[in-house]
Hints:
This protein has helices at about 5-25, 30-35, 45-55, 60-70, 75-100, 105-115, 115-130, 130-145, 150-200, 200-210, 225-235, 240-250, 255-285, 295-305, 310-345, 350-370, 380-405, 410-430, 445-460, 490-495, 500-520, 525-565; strands at about 435, 440. By secondary structure, the protein is mostly helical. The chain has a single domain (about 5-390, about 500-565), classed as Sodium/glucose cotransporter. The chain has a two-stranded antiparallel ribbon with strand order 1-2. The termini are far apart.
Amino acid sequence: xxxxxxxxxxxLCVVGVFAISHIMGRKSKDMESFYHxxxxxxxxxxxxxxxxxxxxxxxTIGTVGYATTMGLAAFFIWSIGAHLxxxxxxxxxxxKISVKVNSTMTELLNxxxxxxxxxxxxxxxxxxxLSISEIAATGYVGIAAWGANKFVVAAIxxxxxxxxxxxGGLMGVAITDMIxxxxxxxxxxxxxxxxxxxxxxxxxxxxxxxxxxxxxMTPLGGIAPGKAIMLILVCINVYKDPAFYQRFTASNGPxxxxxxxxxxxxxxxxxxxxxxxxxxxxxxxxPLLTVQPEVAYITLVLSGLPVVLRGLFIFGxxxxxxxxxxxxxxxxxEILANDIVSPLCKKPLNDRQSILIxxxxxxxxxxxxxxxxxxxxxxxxxxxxxxxxxxxxxxVPVIAAIMYEGKKTNMAGxxxxxxxxGAWIWFSYKPISIAALGGPIDASLVALPLSFVxxxxxxxxxxxxxxxxxxxxxxxxGTAIDTSAISMEEYKKETKVEWFGVDGALCLLxxxxxxxxxxxxxxxVDWIIGWMAPIVAATMTTLIFGRYLFxxxxxxxGHHSRETQLK
Length: 567
């Protein structure tokens, strides 16, 4: 469906992104700058990279595919429920992560539970970093946009992601994420109203879907209880998502990561409204889902856009996927180099060796991901599979390491990991079926409570490797972190929730939007969903992108003035 001019537009955008990544890559000479951007991400850039990293193929194309089978339940369970359970992550955990997590999540596991726990965690995290679902989403975009072979398109996008990761490091990835973030949100916001109102708004889609499955247009009727619980667990998965940990660690202060994620909630929910109601439109157009819904979404959007804008839309969609893939490839490469290879060497890896291994690892991740990505019926099926595994093994020990200040022994972490992982393997092959929950349940629903019980039992044995966190004059946190970096008073100040300040205002914004969108859906008010949701998403994105450009311009102007004075 794309014309030559559309393809030229995409190529020019890709060249521009590579130019930016190359410029930033020249500044990434050591591990700190390559992996963590010297912990200098400002608020605007943190918003862009967090939003783009989470809203990849899963959050855009995958959401549409899954929501065609869930109806309104997708918004009330997946969107509102997802963000509500993440608020503690933003308000209380993000600042602590900025202080507690020196580099990777595996470093945290090593500090509290020992080398074996760290190694197990590294393996599981690398599986998560393969970005299987993102690669699958890429293939469906290729089918709809060019009629191309999904493996070929996925391979090309993987190659672009690897090059961006290897060339630019985290700062390059973050800046390109900001660009992708802008085009992704603007593209979806631009095309949604036309798709929604072309079907007659709520009245039009409801009239069709009530004859197909009346439950699709009820808040909770389009999904089995077991699937609903699993979706909430997928939402909670971000508590041990290495991408968020890296972004929080790379932010220029504990408050920056917290407020960046709080800002993302309102953007994400508005974006969800656009995507999920587009999915409902697709289901109304094709009640039996005779066409792959992810492909149908791209086709629907392209059919309503003029030349050039079609190219920018595909760039935005591909960019959403690339921004997620390069994020996880960078994290996986860091984990492999510093937490698996380096401990096996006689001498610690130097910066150049670590970065080289990380770059080679990215190529391996791409090959493995391409080999298994299209073995799942829907993009979300791939995501849930990987999420289920990582949640079962890592959720309990990671949360305990960050949030629980009491005694944590090495046996607690190991027992939790082995019990969770073993239960996941067993119940994946021999699933439990509970009729009240809609049939077979995901293995993680059994593995998580067993992992928690094993942690409690294991905590009565073994030895305590570290207690608390590093503060000047405070308790021991280990040798990995500079204990003079922050005092107890500074720590309390940085991690305090300012309910009558910026923190409270961002929470109130989300609550207000959630109430308005809920009212609009329940009372079938077309303009709230058809116009307000895309306008809110587009306006917030534009303001944040503008703020980032202003910061870049101001920094460049100030830097030039200082050089002139020196001369």
